[in-house]
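User: Can you recover a sequence for this backbone? Please restate the input before giving your answer.

Assistant: Of course. Working from this structure:
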């Protein structure tokens, strides 16, 4: 049961300060629906359940951590890391106080949007977890604010801490010509996600004044980063609803499900899905629907998965 007071948002028995909640990128009206969606999707795709050690990067104000306290057992562990000090302090004082197996850590990484006074770069701070002990790593709308060098650093750290059968669940914005065209035409989100600024190597930003405000990648760029870290897609990525191109989507953003690279190649299922999708893009581009605003669209590239 939820209720709202002036400065606090009541969620699952916790009173969350509204200014910290607003820093997660959504408002109180969508907080619990998004939380439920996150947990449902992670459960369906990564087998979330008791007996798991979980790491969450960019945990914010505990939108996922709070429901996870009801899913993980007392001997399981959860570590939440974020760069907003006040959010981490709140999570420690409120969530860890009730659940001592839930720990929260502030990474004082400098970031124009979330921590402008920060001291460190992402690559200065290794994740303080042992090798091969983590079952699940969650990032909800975090790679949507990061650039390649830092994403690769995190992914390499994830490869180190993940168990061989572990999974990474990471949302992001993945663009191709059709997605860009649809996003620019539909403009469904409150953030005006048109990604008109290509900054090279398959990376697009929305606003040059706040480059990390929203960052999108072509799938080939994502695969390059994933490959460099010794990871692989565990399945085809889930298409999100943000661009308006896809129907019946599971999340607003696109979702990567990654695993450590133990086989030499990804499964045929993934390769077939990619071939089919690239073919569909080419066909629809060749039908040459007029571009919505004349902004040049990239040609699709063939994804190199390994
Ligand atoms: C859009 S918010 C989402 C918060 C949370 N995942 C949720 O869904 O409620 C993005 C979060 O990522 C955090 N963040 C941004 N860059 C980060 C980095 N390099 N390392 C860890 N967290 C980061 C921000 O501080 C912010 O809390």
């Amino acid at each position: 049961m939820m209720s709202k007071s002036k400065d606090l948002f009541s969620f699952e028995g916790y009173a969350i300060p509204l200014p910290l909640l607003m820093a997660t990128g959504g408002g109180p009206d969508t907080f619990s629906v998004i939380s439920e969606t996150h947990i449902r999707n992670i459960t369906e795709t990564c087998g979330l359940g008791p007996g798991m050690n979980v790491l969450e990067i960019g945990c914010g104000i505990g939108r996922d951590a709070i429901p996870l306290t009801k899913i993980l057992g007392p001997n399981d562990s959860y570590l939440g890391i974020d760069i907003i000090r006040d959010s981490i302090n709140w999570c420690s004082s409120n969530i860890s106080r009730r659940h001592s197996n839930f720990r929260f850590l502030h990474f004082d990484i400098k970031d124009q949007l979330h921590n402008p006074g920060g001291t460190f770069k992402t690559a200065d701070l290794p994740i303080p977890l042992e090798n091969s002990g983590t079952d699940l790593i969650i990032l909800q709308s975090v790679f949507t604010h990061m650039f390649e060098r830092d994403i690769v650093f995190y992914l390499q750290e994830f490869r180190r801490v993940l168990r061989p059968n572990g999974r990474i669940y990471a949302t992001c914005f993945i663009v191709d010509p059709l997605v860009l065209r649809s996003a620019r035409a539909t403009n469904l989100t409150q953030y005006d996600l048109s990604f008109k600024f290509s900054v090279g190597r398959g990376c697009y930003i929305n606003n040059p004044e706040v480059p990390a405000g929203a960052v999108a990648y072509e799938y080939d760029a994502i695969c390059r980063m994933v490959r460099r870290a010794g990871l692989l897609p565990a399945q085809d990525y889930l298409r999100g609803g943000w661009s308006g191109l896809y129907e019946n989507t599971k999340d607003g953003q696109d979702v990567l499900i990654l695993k450590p690279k133990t086989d030499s190649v990804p499964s045929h299922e993934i390769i077939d899905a990619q071939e089919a999708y690239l073919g569909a893009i080419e066909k629809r581009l060749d039908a040459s629907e007029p571009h919505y605003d004349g902004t040049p669209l990239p040609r699709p590239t063939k994804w190199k998965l390994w």
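That completes the design. Residues 24-25, 57-60, 63, 81-84, 107, 109, 111, 114, 122, 140-142, 145-146 surround S-adenosylmethionine (CB under 6 Å).
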